[in-house]
Each structure stands twice: as structure tokens, then as C-alpha cells.
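Researcher: Batch entry, complex prediction.
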Amino acid sequence: MGEEGEKKERETEVRGGGEEEEGKGKEVVVMDTPDRTRNQINTPISKFEESPVFSFLNNLSPIKPVKSVHITQTLNALSFASLPSVFTSPHVSSLKESRFLRRHQLLDPSKPEFSSDGENKTDGSEGITQVSHNSSEQQENFDPGNSLGEVSVEPSYESSQLEVEFVKSLTYDCHSPNSSPKTNCAASNKSRSEFDADTGPLVPFSQAGSGKGLFANEASMEGMCQSNHRDAVGCDWESLISDATDLLNFDSPKDADAFKKSLCPATGFYTNNAIDMQNMQLLGCIEQGEGNDTENPSTQPGEGNCLTKFVETQDMVASSSLNNDCMEGSLSQKMDSEPASNLYRGMRRRCLVFEMAGARKKHLDENSGSVSSILLQSDGNTPTADKQLVPFRTGNDSSRCILPGIGLHLNALATAPKDLKVVKQDASVPGRLVITPGSAANFQSVMVGQESSDPSLALTSTESDMDPVENGVPLMEDTNQASALMVIEEFNQNSPKKKRRRLEPAGEPEACKRCNCKKSKCLKLYCECFAAGVYCVEPCSCQECFNKPIHEDTVLATRKQIESRNPLAFAPKVIRSSDSLTEDDSSQTPASARHKRGCNCKKSGCLKKYCECYQGGVGCSINCRCEGCKNAFGRKDGSMFMGTEVELEEDETDAPEKSARDRNLHKTAIQNDVELQNPESAPPATPLRIIRPSVHLPFSSKKKPPRSSLPSIGSSSGLYAIQGLAKPNFLPPQPKFDKHFQKVQEEELPQILQGDGSPIGGIKSASPNSKRISPPHCNFGMSPGRRSSRKLILQSIPAFPSLTPKH
DNA sequence: GAGTTTGAAACT
DNA sequence: CAGTTTCAAACTC
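Model: C-alpha cells for the complex:
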């Protein structure tokens, strides 16, 4: 009894201390001097230490010192929480976890922990506090009534489980077989500590530096970390659980809700819980079939928020993961340098997209691993159940970009259509493609949306609905998630691999495309990156590049200007109409796509990449003004060896060649299919951005894919639809892919092309961005059936479409 | 890696 | 709209 009384007192003190800390934290923030913060914080700490309770606690467990550290985190979390709930939550969660562990160790026997935590928090608030300060909300959200410690414990546990399940469902695809659930508890703890230490500082930096975008990423990362930690800590959890159960029991839903409310928004501690709770709810909703689909985050404070948060979290995670990919090599370093990294995020993402496949889980190093692991998990690469910290390493290549996050992100997007809600993930998007889809993009998106009918992969074509600028992040259903994940995973694995395989052999090791602009500042269509709607990335050799997140305004303005001149400037260059090959000739080559404007080749004979038609893997058409056209994909004169067109016209003279070509193409197509199988699921969707050219069958094996192909590559990604949303052009080139689908129906082409004269047509082919224009229902899912009906695919919707501001 | 070729993009 | 210039990728060596 006496102890309990003391505990209460402690709690009270702690709370007071916590509040004080916040206030201090704020001060600290203002002050900016860590030292001061510490000093200030120290005061309370000393106070606590002096208290008998503190002594008692100390006696109870030797771990004390650690606690202090954790506490710090906790504080951060709280302060952090003030930020967007979503962001906050992850961060918080991480903190919380650490906290939990400590508690567990320290306090198991009794609840006193709490107080100790509170103390620790104060102490810990140091670096982290700065971050939290920003959020004044914490205090508000922070429900004094609830003892954070008590409530938090159990929820966290539950949440962890839920999270795990959720993650499983989400990340299922991503799992790395290697993932080892078995992290040592000790190690995990240690990692946590380190992680926390790292994260704490990071967060502040991020905020200061990049603002939301960065912040979000970090937050997501943190969130990931949390989950990871949880997993890692598994052993601790059990003990904690037992403890926690005592502490937490929501007898009634009300309590739970109250808990959520109090925690979710505000306190970092609970953020995790809140997130978890959200996840749980989300899952529950989904399962139950509650249609939250379009809920705005704001609509329902309770569930709605949770969902939204959840989505955001995923999104964040994805973004973070992306970053990680790029960062790969040195997460730890990254952590340190995060502030600076913000700028690169967008770029990174882009890279990531291309290299998604590369990213795979690895066991996380305690050192840097924490962060990386977090990211990974977030991506869903690791199965939560098994979660282990798996550091994300793409290998030595720092340059390489992996998309762990993307996968997730994409997934989210992909699934969006149904249940999803669109979340504006990108707000921050620095990491993400900055460019919002322009009109063209929208157009595509719409198209895609139609197609996205495929349940598994439904894309969020909804962009049209959404503000183009803001990419919506759809919420996924469980089932959808799984499928989406699957797709993503495949995408990640396959596409990246493919890319590498093909590209590397070709001699292009770099997955990410890069430009080499010297005079255009990467603000003209000369720049492939810009034209594709993506920011230039590190690998780019451009000079005086303005196509970077930091110059987002400039990029958007320029883009807008260009679009004003030519609305289709960023539209896919290649339009494809596809019949459903399904009918019979899947085998036949696809090439039915055409370049929207046609080429103007004089010397290349349309047999080199100089020719956009050729580069795009499509035959020349009437629109072409080329001379001496020998386009292997189809001559201007109509002789085509591929697909339906062939039927239309044929050069008998070239028959032999054609047959050979066809074979090659066909072969390629097949390969692509195999690789891309997902495509089925993969909706061509990149609503936002479409990649221009698409596949180049011929190229694939040989040299590096034509740049243009990159975008087109996206097409493959496009299949994955997700990409489209998530990223515009990033997808690695998987050129051939297109052809597979390409049956051109010239009949249809004209429609598209005629429409504008330039066609926006979607090209299904390879470019990730490609959009299909299809009858209302699209079957992404249908691999063979893609063409079930004639569809016009906008192949390359310009990646940037998104840039155009949404008005 | 440097230089050339090529054709799109941009400009007039 | 046509002609010219600019630009950067593609290509060659």
C-alpha cells in the first residue's frame, strides 16, 4: 500500500516533471543550446533523484541509467507527438518502446516504473525534447488523467501484436526470408538505446531542416523502428505484457477509445499505441467492412484519424524506406546528416524506385541498423511477426537506390482504390516526386483509375479526385494490402533485379537514371529527369540543376509554363492501344503503340535510339516525318512486323527480318512478362506520372536501356500501378515489357492521338507511368487479359504531370 | 572518356 | 508554321 501511495506521488511528480520538461523543452528549442536543455532538465532530475521513490526505484533495478536515456526519448515522443499525429506517432512509438523495455526491467514487479519513467523522460528530454517542443499539442493531448505509463504499456503490447499482424499483411511480400526474428533481447535493448539516441537527434534536425517532408520520413522511420524494436524485443515484450496486462485493461471500449484519443494525437508515448490502435481499428474496419474509404482524416476523430494516420504512417514509412534505399550504405551516417538529406529525398526516392528490387532485408546492425531496420520493416519487407531488425542494405553501392519504402508506398497507393483513403502523403513529398501530375497526369490518372478496377491492384487513380499536387495515399484493405504488397514486392524484387540484370550487363550499373544536363538546368524537356517528372538524383551529372526538391517551386513553375505551351508536353510520348491480346495472340507482339507526335528522323533510319519511336519500342506511324524509316517496330509506311498492325500491312519483302524481329520481340515480351508477371496486377496505373517511352525490347538485352526507356520502365512499374501513383517515372526500366502488350490497334490510336493531337495515350507497355486508356473497367490484374478490351494506354504519361499545380 | 552524331526541344 | 538554334542523349572511337 505504502508503495502504491508513493507510486502515485511519483507519478504526480513525474507528470509535473514531464510538463515542466515540455516547457523546458520548448525553451530549449528556442534556445537551441543542448547544454541548456540539459541543465534545465537536470534540475528536475536531480529533484527526482533525491526523492525516496527514486532511490527505491534505483534499488529495484540496476538498469536505471538506461532508463534515463529512454526517458529522454519518451519525452521526445511526447513533444514530437504534437506534430502531425502521424508523424509523431512513429517517433513516439520508438521512444515508447524503449521506455517499455526499461520499465519492464525496472519496474516489473510494480508500477512504480512509471514515475521512474517520468524522471527518465525528463532527463532524456535533452536532445529530443527540442523536437517535441514544437508540438505544444502534447500537453493538450497529453491526458493527465491517464497515466501514460500505465496505459501505454499495455496498448503498446497489443499494438505491437496488431502491428505485427498488420505488418504481416502489408509487408508480407516484402519479407525477406532472411529476416531473423531472433534478435537478442540484450542486443535489442542495446540497439534501442542507440537507436533512440540517434533518432532523437535526428528528428529535431529533420524538422529544422526539411520540414514536414523530412519530418514525415523520419517519423515513419521511427515508426518503423518501433515496430522493429518491438519485434526485436519480443522477449521483453512477453514480460512486459504480463506487467502491462496488469496495468492496462480496457474494460470497456470507451476506455480504449479514451486512451486512443488521449494518446494518439498528442503524446508521443501513446502515439505508438495510438498508431497501433489505429492499425487495429483500421484492420477491424476493413475486416468489418466499415467503409472508411474516403474518410477524411479529420472526419472522424477516432477511427477516421486513426486510419488516416495509419495511412500516413505507411506512406511515411515508404518514403523513409525510399530514402533508406538511397542512403543504404550508411544509415547511421544518414541519420547524422539527415538534415541535409532532406533535399535528396525526392531524389532518393526516385532512385529507390528504380532499384527497389535491390533492397532486401538484412539483419540489422545494432549500430546503424536501428534506423535501417525500421525502414525496412516499414516497407514491410520483413514480416512483422518475425520482425527482426533488418537493416536495409543494398549493398555497398551508396548510389544504388532501393525502394523499400516505395514498395510500401506503392502498395498503399495501389490498394487505394477501394478502401483507401487518400492521404496526402506527399505533402511532404520532398522525398517523393515532387512534380504533381499535370493535366496530362491527371488524365492518365483517370485513365488508370478506370483500369484499376482490378481489386487486387486497384490504383488510386483517384488522383483526379485528389489534388494533383497531393498524392493520395490510399489506404489498403487487408486483402488488398496483401495483394498490393505482393505486387509491390514483386515489383521491387523483380523490377530492380531485372533492371540490374539487364542494365548492368548492358553496362549500366546504375539503376537510377540520371541526366547530364549542362545548360538547361534540368528545367527543360531536354532533361530526361525533368521530362519524366522526377527530380534529379545524386547520380545525375547535371550542372546547375534546379530540378531538385529544394527548388520545387521553380520546377513547378517551369513545368507549368511548359505545359501552358504544350499541355501534352509531359504526356507520354508513346501511346498504345491495346487490344486484348487475350483473345489469341498474346503471342503476337504487342507493338501497337505509337509515338504521339511521331519522329522526325532523317539519318538514323529510325533504327537507333535517336528515334523516339524506336526508343519507345513502337513503330513509326503516319505522324512520323521520318525519312527512310526502317523502324523495326513498324515502319511508317505501315509495314509492321508486330501485332495487329502487321495484319494491317505487311512488308513481304522484309518478311524474314520481321520474323526474326518478331521472335526477338516476342521473346523479350515473354521475358518481360515473366519478370513482370505482376503486371497483371500491376495496373498501369501510374496515374500521376507516366513514363514516356516505354519499353524497348531490343534494347533490353543489349545496352543499357535507353534513357527514355527508363521512364518507360516505369511502365512495368506502371503495371504495378502503384508506382504510377507513388512515383512517376522512377521505375526502373523494364522496357520490353511494353511490347508485350503492345498490340497496336491503330484504329484506336488515332482516337487517342487525335484527341489532342497528341496523344496521351496510355501505354501500357512498359513505362511505369504508362496509363491505359481503357474502357471503364480496367483489368490490371489480367495479365493476358490486359487487353481484354481495346485499351488505349498512355504510355508515358509524363512523370511530372503532377507538377502542374493542382489549381 | 572525349568527340561526334542525332533529333527533340526551344527559340525566332 | 517553318526555319534555326540549342541541347543532351546516343553513339563512335
